[in-house]
Amino acid sequence: MIKNNSKYNVIIIGSGFSGITAAEMLADHNLNILLLDENIHFGGQLLRKIPEELGEYPSYKPEKIKRVGFDFIDKVKNEKITLMNKTILLGVYENNEILVEYNREKTFTLKYDMLLFATGSREKFLPFKGWTLPGVYSTGMLQVLIKSSGILPVRRMLMAGSGLFLFAAAYEYLKNGGELLGLMEQSPFLNKIKFFPQLFHQFSKFAEGGRYLSKIYFSGVPVKYRRHIIEARGEKSLEEVVVGKLDSDGELIAGSEKTYQTEALAVGYGFVPNIEAPQLAGCELEYSGEKGGWIVRVNDSLETSVDGILAAGEITGIGGAQKSLNEGKIAAYTILEKLGIGDREKGASPLKKLKRERKHHMNFVKCFNSLYRIKPKTIIGIPDDTVICRCENVDMKTIKNAVQTGMGCFDPNSLKIATRCSMGQCQGRICSPVIYDILQILCQKSAEEIGMYSVRPPLKPVSIKALKNPHNS
Question: What domains appear along the chain, each with residue ranges and CATH number?
Answer without folding.
Answer: 7-122+272-370 (3.50.50.60), 125-269 (3.50.50.60), 376-450 (1.10.10.1100)
